[in-house]
Each structure stands twice: as structure tokens, then as C-alpha cells.
Design goal:
single chain; alpha/beta; Spore Coat Polysaccharide Biosynthesis Protein SpsA, Chain A; 2 domains; ten-stranded mixed beta sheet; globular
Length: 281
């Protein structure tokens, strides 16, 4: 039994994504309901997006929850059995959703993803088996994931993770349950890659990403392989990051700030502190 468009909702988590969200929504079939979860209290954005697109319902979180928790808000407010998670800096091809619906008639899956249109940057890893139109994989990138809600027991993204590896964690938990994750080769998607926030704020975004990458990487390893493994494999990054932050204090203040935040993210994760770093934008 396949998916129909009536049983599909698209969820998009946004944060200051005004410059890319219109192109994203315009690429989605107009009869597919869309839930936009805006990680702020931006009432003007909500009014604008709901007025412009009649198939969009916008939820304001009133705070920056991050991607995973924001996606959970959208999923839990959907009334369909299937939800397609996409980032605001993605654009679907004209037949992307149709191809996904068609292939769903042939398979049993927990996660199904379109394929990146850039062959240099595949959106999946760990190929188990490949057929004419399907790739059986270990995990897919989080910017596009079609979820079969019946497979998740209402346990979706780990809300302790603010940014990075939340999709890896979700896929790993599905694999532990022996569930299938596929990429559909006939359904394409374009990922603009990190263009959903104003480029003028690049340094702040780089600092945020570096902090959370180190926090999430340690947390992910600790969650799935234990604290000792996570700690031992983090000793070298801990030392090199410390040395680089000191070195760049003399030659490059911006880089020093980035590495100090990498160090902070890792140390806070080792200490078991929450993923608290938020953008100052």
C-alpha cells in the first residue's frame, strides 16, 4: 500500500529564513499541506507565509528550539501518517513528491529520501544494496526525510540535540530496530546548503556550528557507544582544538574565537551540560 498526497504533510523548520522559504514552498505540490515551524515569535512572518500560501500552517515556537525539536513540533501537529521533513534551503523538482509516492507502493520503509541532484555531495552514506530506482542505505542527511510515522512509536528526533547529528541518531535508532532506510534515485532535490540565514552573520553562524558540532559529536558517541569510548576518542580533538585556539590568539582573532567555541562545545558535552549555545542574531 503506497502513500497518497492526502496522507502526506511537509514539515519545514525555519529561523530567519525569509530569503529562501518562498522558493522552497513554491516547489512543493500545492495540494500537499505544509507545516512551517518558525523558531521565534515572528508574528509578521506567520501572517505573511499563511496569507501567501493557502496550504501552509505556521507555528511559532517563541524560542529557538533547534532543528530536531522544531521538527518534532511539526510532526506532532500533523494529522497524516507520513511526514516529509525538508530544510528551507531546499528545492524539490517538479516530480519529486510524485516519484516518492510511486516508489512507496513497492516498499516497506521507515525513512525514504529523494536524492541530491549534486553527485559530488551525496545525501546518504552506507550503501547496503542498490537497485534500478532504489538505494538501501544506513542513513540520509536531515535536509530531506520522508518518515513513516507508524515506525517511530512517537519517538522522533532527540530533543537534547540542538544542531548536527540529529538525523544520524534517528537513522541509527531505526537501524537498531531493523527498519529500512531508502533513497529514491528518480526523486531529486536541490540543497542550497546553509543559505537560509543572512550571509552578513557568517561569523556568528560559524561559531554556533562549531560549538554544536563538537557538543553533538561527543553526545552522539556517548549515547551509542558509552562515555569511556566517547571520552577516549575525544582526547586528541580536545588537545588540538586547545592548541589551535591559543595559536590563533596571536595571528587571527576570528579563528581563535571559533576554536575557543569548539573547545567550549566539547568540554560542555563531556561535563554533561545541556546544548545551550544559541545564535546572537
Amino acid at each position: 500500500m503506497g502513500i497518497s498526497q492526502k496522507d502526506l504533510t511537509v514539515v519545514i523548520v525555519t529561523f530567519q529564513s525569509e530569503k529562501v522559504i518562498n522558493d522552497c514552498i513554491n516547489s512543493i505540490n500545492k495540494n500537499v499541506p505544509i507545516i512551517v515551524v518558525e523558531n521565534s515569535n515572528n508574528q509578521n512572518f506567520k501572517r505573511m507565509i499563511e496569507k501567501k500560501f493557502h496550504n501552509v500552517k505556521c507555528f511559532l515556537t517563541n524560542e529557538n528550539l533547534g532543528m530536531g525539536k522544531g521538527n518534532n513540533v511539526g510532526i506532532k501537529n500533523s494529522s497524516t501518517n507520513y511526514v516529509m521533513i525538508i530544510n528551507p534551503d531546499t528545492i524539490l523538482y517538479k516530480d519529486t513528491i510524485i516519484e516518492l509516492l510511486n516508489i512507496s507502493k513497492k516498499i516497506d520503509f521507515s525513512i525514504l529520501s529523494p536524492i541530491s541532484d549534486d553527485k559530488n555531495y551525496p545525501n546518504y552514506k552506507g550503501v547496503n544494496h542498490e537497485e534500478n530506482d532504489l538505494i538501501d542505505v544506513e542513513h540520509v542527511d536531515g535536509y530531506s526525510m520522508l518518515l513513516n510515522k507508524s515506525k517511530f512509536d512517537n519517538k522522533y528526533f532527540d530533543e537534547k540535540i540542538f544542531m548536527f547529528l540529529e538525523n544520524n541518531d534517528l537513522c541509527k535508532r531505526m537501524k537498531i530496530k531493523k527498519e529500512k532506510i531508502y533513497v529514491c534515485k528518480n526523486a531529486k532535490i536541490k540543497h542550497l546548503g546553509g543559505r537560509s540565514v543572512d550571509a552578513k552573520k557568517d561569523l556568528e553562524i560559524e561559531i554556533l556550528r562549531n560549538w554544536h558540532w563538537m557538543w553533538s559529536k561527543f553526545y552522539f558517541k556517548k549515547k551509542h557507544k558509552g562515555f569511556i569510548y566517547a571520552f577516549l576518542t575525544s582526547l586528541f580533538p580536545l588537545l588540538t582544538t586547545l592548541l589551535k585556539s591559543i595559536f590563533f590568539m596571536i595571528s587571527n582573532q576570528k579563528k581563535s574565537k571559533v576554536y575557543l567555541n569548539r573547545l567550549s562545545g566539547l568540554v560542555n558535552s563531556i561535563l554533561g551540560n545541556k546544548s545551550f549555545k544559541r545564535p546572537k542574531i
